[in-house]
Structures are given as structure tokens and as C-alpha cells.
């Protein structure tokens, strides 16, 4: 017996033809699909063909939907609607599903009388029952008279027919800020079906919001877990089904969306099962979110020539060659607490990454408390794993693939035990540091192609417990860049994610130059940004020049001492403050091979952001610099 509810997805969530949708849903492991009427109408085959196809794939057809504008219409529509229902029943029987979703009537002509709605639904349910079918009634948040689940439930109770039940959809309830907790009191068998959807919090017309911006549970900001907990407390034992209307999903690769969907459903169930029932075994045995102590290293895919160039570039930033791998063409560069690895080993994950993307970050090493448990969690959440070849007595680093195919390596450090670097590298004697030491990797920013944000958010949130910060819109001279930082509870891992629809923004240029999503910039934490910038400038490091207007404006925005302002100006440092008086000083390098760049940052007084106020100036300076470099 499966320990979880059967898992279903509406065909409207997925791109492509009905065949593609069913295959993707089945291959990733869904148990069933909601057939959206439009996907059937546009399919060049009979409902019986769909039934066979689903059966061959091992998919149940959980529901046929939607049936619109049925209840509480005046004559002659009332009678016509009952005839319409009979035609839908014919299709359902050919499809081999017993449940139809009736969404609440949105017509002006709909009569505002729950008794009439109940009488009509009872008629429909009686006709359905004669064919062994069932009817579920769902409140649309923008229905003419029925908008809340309680109103729909009241009508279902009045109708009092065993073939009529309630359908609930987290979006409609949560979008209206309606309270789902009362669902726990319903008899579970009277809830015929449960749809789950999340959404970002937008202050907009609810119909437009629902039709274009829904996303999978965990990708948005609605309290879907609380909703699900209430539903499950009723004793509901039917399928949990994802129903997402989203413009980006309609355009996204179908297999990725299906994977994200199932990942989100596994997480939602685990989340709903977890805290309310201490001591009981959760429905999904999902290992806990790993504790992350930081980014242990970043690994660059290079070939020999690119490796030399990047090594030189890093040398200019004060990094030193600190070790060579015992068995592979892999070098360790170090400055202070920061480890950067350059991998030119043939026939490796790095080599294929280099073939596809050129010099770029191909792996991130995360320091975790329990690498094996973290790997099991990732596997349970459908992440592909990777086993790199290794020499005798070298460390086994559990590895999984991020949504762009880059690797995340899980590094477990135990006090008093040899480190990864001791185990796998011939370490060179450390020379005295050039410049003030780097304290660690402050953040790693990735550029994503349009449409990839939700998938990455779910990956980092679900697998590693990072939480998304609010989305920011940053003006690049060539278009807007949307940025959302994923940050863990301790602030030890910070991963801003940027997307842009515009091809010529810094983010857009990265995506075309690197052939896809990847690490666009790496920020190092320092104690004193002015001292670090001065040391970098002194050793001839390529710092990004910032225009003088920026500093004139700074003096108008913040009460800075003249000497400080002059130092910022001289060192091309940017400055920001938060509302609590925390401050941020940062400087950027120009890019390596027009691809990625580095930043040094200093945080004071609990500043937790990323200097978004300065992004426009930085991106304009980069655009100007790169245009100059191209000549
Ligand atoms: O947007 C709609 O019309 C619509 C249709 C069916 C649903 O189940 C739903 O939640 C919304
Ligand atoms: Mg719905």
C-alpha cells in the first residue's frame, strides 16, 4: 500500500500535445491526470484513444474538467445545461473517468439562490449516478454567487445526493484570504477531489492572477501547506492534483515541468505531514533539510589554455595555487577561506560542461552536516545523481544535478578529521597572503533563462531549505533584470537568481554567451572593502570603473563623511544602507572572458541584502566597459 495519496496533475500544467503531456506525467511518476477539456478538443484522436493511451502508461484519468456555467440558470438554459451534462457524461464514459468538475457559474444571468443551485446540481448528480458517474462542485474565486468553499459546501449539503461532492482548490481559497481550517471538520468522503496550486502575492484581478500566474506549491507565497493540512485532517483519501495555469509553464519543456510538479507535491505532502503529528512516521520518508555551513568551493570547467588564463586572473585577485589533485588535472586556488577549483580533466563531468558552455562554473561544493542524508533527500526529490570517477582512497562526494545540469557536491567536514583537500590534493606550502584575506564566499549569483526561475526556486528550497526573498526588478540599460535571492536560515549560503526577457542585458548576454543558465558572479566577503579594493587596485586587478555622478548622488542620499566618500570614489566602491542602519560596501571586477565576474563585499551592522540599489549603475558600467573592450 502506498504511503501517500495518489498524485495527479492537470494536463493544463504541461506544454505540448496531449500525448507529450501524458508521457511526461507518467514517466516522472504521477499516478493520474486531470484531462482538461481543451486538451481533448485539440487532440486528433477519440476519447477512447486517450483512455487507451493513459491505460498503457499506467495513468488514471482522475477527473474531466471543467464543466462551466451550469447551476442556477433560468429556463431555457437550465434544461439545455442538463442536456449539455449528458454529452459530457458520454465523453467521461469514453475516457473512463467517473468524476466531472463543475466550477461555479460566472454568468450574469445566474440566479443568486443556493436552493436553486442545489436543485440543479442534484438533478445533474442523479443523472450522473444512473451512469455510475459523480459530480464535484468547485467554487471559483470569481464565481457570480459561489466564491468560497463554504458557499459551495452549503450547496452540496442542500443538494444532499451521494453522487455530488465538494471539490476544493487551494488557489481559490487562499487568493481570497479565506480560512481553510474549517475543511478539517468536513466528512472526508464528501470531498471528491483536491487541487493544489500556489502563486506569488500579486495585488491584481483574481481571475487574471489565477489564469496566468499560478505556480506549483512551494514556488509561490500562498500558505498551501496549511490548506493541505486542513484538507487531510478531514480524512480525505482521494488524489492530490496540481492545477496550474501559468504562461511560462505553457512554454516550458514538458519533462522539466512534470519533474518540478512531482517534486512540489512530494514536498507539500511531507510539509503537511511533518510538524502536526510529532512521533508519527510522515507519509513520505523524506530526510530532513541539511544544515549548510557554507559554500566549501566552486569548481570551474576549463581546458588547459582557459585554465592558465583563469589562474592568472585569479592570481590578480590575490589567489594562489594551493594544491594539485592527486589523480586528476585539477588545481586548487585559495585566498583566505575561499577555495576555487579549476578542472581540466578529460572525460569528466567538467569536460562535458566545458564542451557545452566554455569556461564556467560547473560545480558548487556545499558544506553539509550529513552528506549521505542530503543525497537521499535529493534523490527522493527526483534529483539526478552523479558519480564522478575517482582514484583509490579519494573521497566519495555525493553529487546531484541542479536544474541546469551543473553539479552540487555534498561535502561533510568533521572536526579533527582530514579535510577534502587533505584527502584528495597534494597541498603546496602556503605562501604569505597577497592582500587582506577573503573571509568566505558571500553569495553566488546565477543567470537563468526566461521561465527557469520557478524551477530553480523549488530546487533550492526543497532540496536545501533556502528561502526566496522578494523579487526585485533591476534596470539594466538594455532591459529589466528580475532578481530573487535564495538564502538559508543561517545566512551561510546566499544564491541570488537573475532572469531577463531582454537579450542584451547583462543577464541576457550571459545566457547567450554561456549557452544557458549558470554562475554569473561570485562575491567574496571581506572585513574591510576599502582595504581589499586598495590592495586589488595596487596589484593591478581589473576593477570596474564607476562614474562620478554615482558618488555625487551618494552624498545626497546618505550622510557620509567627506573622507569616506572620497575613498569610495577613488576605489570604485559602491555603497548601500538598510533601514536599520546596516551598511554595505562592494566593488566589482570586470569580467573574465566576457562571462563571469567577481565582487568583494563588506557587510556591517547586520546588512542582509545585496546592494540592489546599485545594480543599475553596475550593469551600465559593465555594458559600457564591454562595449569598449569589443572596440
Ligand atoms: O480558470 C478557470 O476557469 C478554472 C477552471 C477550472 C478550475 O478548476 C479552476 O480552478 C479554474
Ligand atoms: Mg481548480
From TrEMBL:
Pfam (any one): Glyoxalase
Span of the signal peptide: none
Molecular function as annotated in GO: 3-dehydroshikimate dehydratase activity; isomerase activity; metal ion binding
Native source species: Teichococcus oryzae
Assigned EC number: 4.2.1.118
Family: Belongs to the bacterial two-domain DSD family.
Record's protein name: 3-dehydroshikimate dehydratase
InterPro entries: DSD, Glyas_Bleomycin-R_OHBP_Dase, Glyas_Fos-R_dOase_dom, IolE/XylAMocC-like, VOC_core, Xyl_isomerase-like_sf, Xyl_isomerase-like_TIM-brl
Domain VOC span(s) in chain numbering: 291-413, 440-576
Record keywords: Isomerase, Lyase, Metal-binding, Pyruvate
Top-rank taxon: Bacteria
Cofactor: a divalent metal cation
EC class: lyase
Function (record text): Catalyzes the conversion of 3-dehydroshikimate to protocatechuate (3,4-dihydroxybenzoate), a common intermediate of quinate and shikimate degradation pathways.
